[in-house]
Structure prediction request, 284 residues.
Amino acid sequence: MTDSSLLNSELELEQQEEMYQQLLLQTMGKLQTETPDSKVIRPLPGMCVKTFSEPAKEKVFINICQSNSVPPPPELTRDELVQLLQSEDPSGYRVPMSLGEPHTEADNNSQQCTAYDVVINQDFYQKCQEDPLFQQFIILVSVEGLENKYSLELNRDWKVLKNRKFLGSVSEQNIRTKSRPVIQELQPEKSPTSSCKRPEFTLFVEPPDRQPECLISEIKLPGVTSSRSLVLDVGEDRLVLTARPSLYHLDIFHPFLVDQENSVAQYNKSTQILTVTMPVVSSS
Prediction:
């Protein structure tokens, strides 16, 4: 999977034994050079949603498109969706999607407006068409995704256009492909990590009341006496940690795109907590 441990050995300075130790992170550079990071797809039209930017009240159109090249989200029933929307943290359920760049179009009055293309899995799109609750859910997820990626504020009083599936012309999109083969390699059927425990962890953003700058993960690792036994991999929207030999294994996705190269991990031997600080680029 990777050619070396992604955590360097801890600093062996006696006077710093009780301090946080800086651990250099590498990403999956070798894997990325061996497999293509993305591929070009041409999505199918789906539905066109009209809303407005805030506070300027400029027209914004969201083309929600469909493609089987985009992986489906985990299975979700209507009852589970209701519970999810009522929960305090619905971000735990992630819908894979490709958020396209803004493009300028003309509306029915020949007025200039902005359109965004959002591509989701074709089967999940059909599910959203069959149930109004799922339709409103995918529109909300698309709106929030665009807001986070492009620092927008969009009006929640949107309208689905009845006689238009797409504003503008359908164009090709590049979608990332490296996540899926990585999942297959990290979790083979007879995984050596199957006997490992899943450690307790927390995820939070800083600052909590503004646009997130850093995503911070604190992972409790009781019994781990040295960072030498830790193998850590930080991806764009994923964190994988293994504590050897067969102690802990953690594999989580998060709703942000982070700067892998500038992420930093620190292991506190006294508290036995690993802190991973990841600069946020945008929401995924």
